[in-house]
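Reviewer comment 2.1 asked that we show a complete input and output for one of the modelled complexes. We chose the citrulline case, as it is the one discussed in the main text.
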Amino acid sequence: MNRALVRAPSPRLAEGLLTHLARTPVDTRLALRQWQHYVGALTAAGWECVEVPPIDECPDGVFVEDTMVVFGDLAVISRPGAGSRRPEVDAARETVAAQGYRTVSIESPGTLDGGDVLKIGDTVYVGRGGRTNDAGIAQLRDSLAPVGGRVVAVTVTKVLHLKSAVTALPDGTVIGYPPLVDDPEVFDSFMPVPEPAGAHVVLLGGDQLLMAASAPATAGLFASLGYRPVRVDISEFERLEGCVTCLSVRLRKPHPARQ
Ligand code: CIR
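Response of the prediction step:
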């Protein structure tokens, strides 16, 4: 069965970091219900959700995707670009190791957030921007080369993370909302979508795409292409520059060559 790591939101979620958005009030009780629905959507699609122990002192801990990059049987544990998020990685490392993954860690002076990493087959696009630096990219390249990952650095200036700007459909087509994509030409195949949150999909398997409820037009577009959008309301996480990808780390068992 496919597995996904998730982490329950902190009671201090409303204090989460903001870079590009203005702060708006976060309803932490609603956020918890939305997170439970998100976990429920993964579970309904056949994913076993494994919880990383919560870290209440870190407001952004729920965005567990940022703690690692998983490729094959290797989990590269991140060193978040925001110092306040660095304590998040320890329990994440222990949890993924307990799932049978080898681990290696990004070390100082490198920084890397998992949200900056988009895997398409053997190609691993890494956003160089506010959270991920050249040393982090170089360490990721060195870690992934032996297991067949080819790291390609791309520029991110308009949004928090690479995957805030683009993700990919099951056939490898990169999708993004053009005003927020620095350089669409770097991708082999790029499809514009009509909404910022339409750029974010989690591949649930088969033709199912997990998407935010805030992208109805893009969901319609994908449905017209033969996909089945599964929509979840993640408004309270979107207020903190989160999206559907950042609320989980998708693992596949047995160890995949790709995911
Ligand atoms: C942060 O600024 O780190 C959080 N407020 C949001 C992180 C979102 N993570 C992601 O898109 N991978």
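Residues 16-17, 19, 60, 63, 65-66, 82, 85, 115, 160-161, 163-164, 240-243, 246 surround citrulline (CB under 6 Å). We note this here for comparison with the apo prediction described in Section 3.2.
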